[in-house]
Design brief:
binds iron/sulfur cluster; 12 helices; 32% helix
Length: 441
C-alpha cells in the first residue's frame, strides 16, 4: 500500500521578513516530500510562524497558537515570539517545539522528530526558485538578517541578533531563479538593507564567475542588471545611501527609497539613538531629488516617544512640510517588553499620542495628495497586480505592494492584461492614496 505522505499546515504572521522565513521552511518541507495542508483538519501537524515585535503582535501570535492547538493539536512554533523567554511554553506547555526566527534547520529537525517521512517518500520536484507566498510576479529578496544598531525602542537586535549578510553569490542566485520563474519585481528587504556586507568586511563574492564586492552599492548594481524592477526597503539613512542614487537616475533600479527617519527632533532622535542631523537630512533629500527627480521617498515615523514635547512634535511637522515625502507611515510609540526606552522618563499619555498621530497623518495626507496630483497627465509604465471586470489594479515605480497606494485603470474594451504584465498608462485623476489612469494603446 502507498504510504500516506505527511501533511503540514502552515500559519504565518508578521512582517515581510517573517514571510521570507516561511517561504524557506515551506520550500524545504516540499523539497523533502512533505505536503502542505490547507486546513487544520487535513494537516498532521501545524507550524505557526509568529511575530513578537509589539504587544499586539504577541497577543495575535498567542491566539494563533491556541487556535492551532485546539483545531489540530500538534503544533511547532517558530519566529520572533519563539525567541522571547519562555513566553510560548509558559502559555502553551503542550506545543511540540519552539524556535526563534530564521531557524529553518531547527524547524526541520522538529518536524522530522514529530512527523517523520515514510521510508520511501515520493520526493516531489521543486522549482529552483523555491515556494513563494507572494503573487508570482513579485517576490521579497532577503539579503541579511539581524541588525548592528541599538535603537532604544527596538528589540529586533535582541530577537534576531547582529547583522549577518547572506553571501552575494547566494543572493544573486536566488534573484536569478526568481526572475527565470517569472518574477517581475524584486523587493529587497532586511532589517538594515544599506549595511549589507559590513559584517563580512565587504569581502569579494562571485556571481556568474565575476568578482563582486559584498557591499550595498555593488549588490544593488548587480540586481539592477537582471532586467526586472528592483525596489529597496528598510534603508537606514547612512551617508553611503547616496551612492545608489545614480543607479536610480540611470533607470537601473526603481527610483524608490523606503527610508525610516523615525523622527525629526534632534533631541528625540538622539534619545532614540538614531542619526540626529535633520538639516543634513533635508539637504540630502534635496540633493537626491536633484540627482533623480523621479525619486519616490517613503518613510515611517514614531510619535509619542518618551520625552516628546509639543515643540519636538512641531519640529517633526515642520520637517514633513519641508521634506514633502511621497508616502509616510506613522506609529504611536508603545513600550515593547525588553526595550530600553520603556524605562525613559516622560512617558506620553495614550490620548496625546493618538492626537499627534492624527495631526501628523492629516498634514501628510495633504502633502501626499498634492504629490499625487502632480502626476495627473503623465504617462508611465505600471505593473499589473490584479484584473477584474470592474478594474485593473496596478502599481507604478512609486508604489510598493501592500504598503503604498495603487493605480486603478478602468477596463476599456482592449484585451485585458494579465497580472505580471507591464502596460503603459496615462494618469487622469488622483486622491490622497491612489492614482486613476487610462490605458494607452
Ligand atoms: S535599525 Fe531598525 S532593526 Fe536595527 S535597532 Fe534600529 S529600528 Fe531596530
Amino acid at each position: 500500500m502507498t504510504p500516506r505522505i505527511p501533511r503540514i499546515g502552515f500559519v504565518s504572521l508578521g512582517c515581510p521578513k517573517a514571510l521570507v522565513d516561511a517561504e524557506h521552511i515551506i520550500t524545504r518541507l516540499r523539497a523533502e516530500g512533505y505536503h502542505i495542508g490547507n486546513s487544520y483538519q487535513d494537516a498532521d501537524l501545524v507550524v505557526v510562524n509568529t511575530c513578537g515585535f509589539i504587544d499586539a503582535a504577541v497577543a495575535e501570535s498567542l491566539e494563533a497558537i491556541g487556535e492551532a492547538l485546539a483545531e489540530n493539536g500538534k503544533v511547532i512554533v517558530t519566529g520572533c515570539l519563539g525567541a522571547k523567554d519562555n513566553v510560548v511554553l509558559d502559555n502553551y506547555p503542550q506545543v511540540l517545539a519552539v524556535t526563534g526566527p530564521h531557524a529553518t534547520q531547527e524547524v526541520m529537525e522538529a518536524v522530522h522528530h514529530h512527523l517523520p517521512l515514510p521510508a520511501q517518500p515520493f520526493a516531489e520536484l521543486i522549482p529552483p526558485q523555491g515556494i513563494k507566498l507572494t503573487p508570482r510576479h513579485y517576490a521579497y529578496l532577503k539579503i541579511s538578517e539581524g541588525c548592528n544598531h541599538r535603537c532604544r525602542f527596538c528589540i529586533i537586535p535582541a530577537l534576531r541578533g547582529k547583522l549577518a549578510s547572506r553571501p552575494l553569490g547566494e543572493v544573486m542566485q536566488e534573484a536569478e531563479n526568481l526572475v527565470q520563474a517569472g518574477v517581475r519585481e524584486l523587493l529587497v528587504i532586511s532589517q538594515d538593507t544599506s549595511a549589507y556586507g559590513v559584517d563580512l568586511g565587504y569581502r569579494t563574492g562571485f556571481w556568474g564567475g565575476r568578482p563582486i564586492k559584498t557591499r550595498f552599492r555593488e549588490l544593488v548594481a548587480a540586481l539592477g542588471s537582471l532586467g526586472v524592477w528592483i525596489r529597496l526597503h528598510y534603508v537606514y539613512p547612512y551617508p553611503h545611501v547616496d551612492e545608489v542614487l545614480p543607479l536610480m537616475a540611470e533607470g537601473r533600479i526603481l527610483p524608490y527609497l523606503d527610508i525610516p527617519f523615525q523622527h525629526a527632533s534632534p533631541k528625540i532622535l538622539k534619545s532614540m539613538r538614531r542619526p540626529a542631523h535633520t538639516e543634513n537630512t533635508l539637504a540630502r533629500i534635496q540633493r537626491w531629488r536633484e540627482i533623480c527627480p523621479e525619486i519616490t521617498l517613503r518613510s515611517t515615523f514614531i510619535v509619542g516617544y518618551p520625552g516628546e514635547t509639543e515643540e519636538d512634535f512641531e519640529l517633526l511637522l515642520d520637517f514633513l512640510r519641508q521634506a514633502r515625502l511621497d508616502r509616510v507611515g506613522c506609529f504611536t510609540y508603545s513600550n515593547v517588553a525588553g526595550a530600553e526606552a520603556n524605562d525613559l522618563p516622560g512617558q506620553i499619555d495614550e490620548e496625546l499620542k493618538a492626537e499627534r498621530q492624527a495631526r501628523l497623518m492629516e498634514l501628510q495626507a495633504e502633502i501626499s495628495a498634492d504629490r499625487l496630483k502632480e502626476k495627473i497627465g503623465r504617462s508611465m509604465t505600471v505593473l499589473v497586480d490584479a484584473v477584474s471586470p470592474e478594474a485593473i489594479i496596478a502599481r507604478s515605480a512609486a508604489e510598493a505592494p501592500e504598503v503604498d497606494g495603487v493605480v486603478v485603470i478602468e477596463p476599456d474594451g482592449q484585451t485585458p492584461p494579465q497580472p505580471g504584465d507591464f502596460i503603459q498608462v496615462e494618469i487622469v485623476n488622483s486622491d490622497p492614496h491612489d492614482l486613476y489612469a487610462r490605458r494607452l494603446g
